[in-house]
Amino acid sequence: MSRREGSLEDPQADSSVSLLPHLEAKIRQTHSLAHLLTKYAEQLLQEYVQHQGDPFGLPGFSPPRLPVAGLSAPAPSHAGLPLPERLRLDAAALAALPPLLDAVRRRQAELNPRAPRLLRHLEDAARQVRALGAALETVLAALGAAAHGPRPEPPATATATAATAAGVFPAKVLGLRVCGLYREWVSRTEGDLSQLVPGGPA
Amino acid sequence: MPAGRPGPAAQSARRPPPLLPLLLLCVLGAPRAGSGAHTAVISPQDPTLLIGSSLQATCSVHGDPPGATAEGLYWTLNGRRLAPELSRVLNASTLALALANLNGSRQQSGDNLVCHARDGSILAGSCLYVGLPPEKPFNISCWSKNMKDLTCRWTPGAHGETFLHTNYSLKYKLRWYGQDNTCEEYHTVGPHSCHVPKDLALFTPYEIWVEATNRLGSARSDVLTLDILDVVTTDPPPDVHVSRVGGLEDQLSVRWVSPPALKDFLFQAKYQIRYRVEDSVDWKVVDDVSNQTSCRLAGLKPGTVYFVQVRCNPFGIYGSKKAGIWSEWSHPTAASTPRSGEAGPGSPRATPSRGGGEPSSGPVRRELKQFLGWLKKHAYCSNLSFRLYDQWRAWMQKSHKTRNQVGRSRGCARGPASSASSASTSREAAAKAWVTSCTVLR
Hints:
Chain B: It is found in: Secreted. The complex is a heterodimer. By secondary structure, chain A is mostly helical. In chain A, 57% of the residues lie in helices and 0% in strands. In chain A, helix 1 runs antiparallel to helix 3 and helix 1 packs antiparallel against helix 4. Chain A is elongated and about 50 Å long. Chain B has a five-stranded mixed sheet with strand order 2-9-8-4-5, with no helix packed on it. In chain B, strands 14-15-11-10-19 form a five-stranded mixed sheet, with no helix packed on it. In chain B, strands 12, 13, 16, 17 and 18 form a five-stranded antiparallel sheet that branches.
C-alpha cells in the first residue's frame, strides 16, 4: 500500500470518490480485528478476576482506579475529538499496552502458576494488541494522518521503583486495571474505525 | 506493631515482590498529596501462616487533610464482611483484627483481606497465604522408551493438598560421579511427572529423587536407584491384523510386527494379547506369547465381533535380568468369527445339522464325508461309519472339556489339529481313530 492513498479529513464527504480498494480492505480488516479483540478482552477480564478470588469479580467490586504510567483511560472528551486525533490516540494506547500486559503476565505467573490458560491469554493479548496497533499505524500512514515525529518510549524499568513496594493485593488490583484499560482501548479503537469503514456510520 | 502469629513450625516467607517494569504505581496504602482522599496500610503485608494458626492485623488510616479516623472502618476476607467482634479500634486511626484457627487459603494467589472505609470503598488490602508445608513425595516410578529418554512419575506427600502453591523438582545424578541435574519438562504424563529427553547413560545406575518446596518449607523423597536398561518399555506392536481361520467358527488368527524401535537391540520380546466381545467390557488375556508374532485365538463364539489388542515387554535387553515394562496396548483391531453354517473363504457352504443331537459344523462334516469317501476308495478300514463319528462327538459334548479353555488364558492355539474347539478336535480324533483301523491300499 502506498504511503498516502486517501484522506481522513472527510472520508465520506464525496460519495463519488471512494477509497482505493486495498486501503478499504485494510480498514475493514483492521476494524474486524478490533472487533474480535474487544470480545477477547472481555473474556480475559472475566478470566482474570476468577483467578484473583473474591471480591474480584463480585458485583459492586470497585477497587481504586490506580494510575498506570504511560497510559490512561479514554477521556470523556475523546468522542468529541476529530477522527484523525482519536485514531492517533488509539494507536498510542495500543502501543503502550503490550509491555503492561507482559508485566501482568509475569506477576500472574508467580501468583497463579497453575493457571496456564490465563497466562497464555495474557501473552496472546500482548501479541494481538501489538498486531492491531501496527495495522492501525499502517492505515494512519496511508491516510496521511500518522503521528508526527517518533513516539515517546515507555518509561524505563528503573522508574518503576515505587512498584517494588507494592504487595500482592495491589498487584492484583493493578492487573485488573491493565486488563480493563486493554478492553476500553480496543473497544474505543473498534468504534473509531467503524467511522472509516465504507458504508459504516459517518 | 502487631503481626501474625504463625504456628511453631511456620516461617513467614516474605519475599520482596519482583519488579513490575513500566508500572509506576500509586501504591495502595501510600498517601497521595493533595488528593483529599484517605488511604490506609495493612500490616502484615502478605503473611504466610500455618493452617489453624492465628493472625492479628491492623489497618492504619492516613490521608489528606489529616485527622483520618478509624471509626466506621471494617474488614472483609475474600469478599465476606467479618464480624464486628473480631475487630477493635486501637487508636484514632487504627483498626485491629484478630482471626483464629485459620483455614487453608481458598485460592493460590492468596486470600484477600481488605480494609474498607465506612462507605465501602477499599482503602488497603493484604493477601494471606494459609497452608501446610509439603510432605515427602513418594512412590517414584520411572521408565525409558526405547532407551532414549526417561520419564518419572511420583505421588505428592500423604495428604496432597497444602493449600499453597508447591513446586516439585525431579533431580537425578549418576550414582558414583557427576553433578545433580534437574528435570525440566514437567507434567508430561500427569500433574506429577517429568521427562528427561536425552543424554542418558546406560549400564550405570542413576539416583533419582523429588524435592517439594512451598512458602512454608520443603521436603525430599527417598532416593530411587535404577539402571535405564532395567526400566525399558517400547511402542505397542504395529500392524496388528486379525483374520478368520478359513471357515472355523470359533477361531481368529492374530498377527503383528515386532516393535521396530528395538530391532537393533538384543532383547527377547514377550507379548500379551487381550480380546473381548464387541459389546462387553470384560477382556480375556492370553499370556506367555513369547518371541512370536502370531497367535490363534480359539474357543470363540461364532458370528461374533471381537476386539483384539497386543502389547510387548522387551525383557532381557542387553542381558538385563529384569523384566521390562509393558508397552501400551495397540489400537483395537476388530474381526468377526464366521456364523454357524456361514461359508468361510474356500470352504463349501454349511449344511444344517441332521436329526437330534448337537448342532453340527457343516464344513467339518462335509470334509469328513469326503475323507471317508477317499478312505473307502483307497484303504480298507473296519468299523468305518459316520455313526461312529457322531457317537464320538456326543461323548465329547458331555465331557465339556474344551468349552472354556481359551477364556482362562491357556495360550495360543497351535494349528487346527490342536485347537480347543470341539469341531477340530473331533475331526482330529476321528481321523486318528479311523487311521488305526485302516490299511491304505496301494
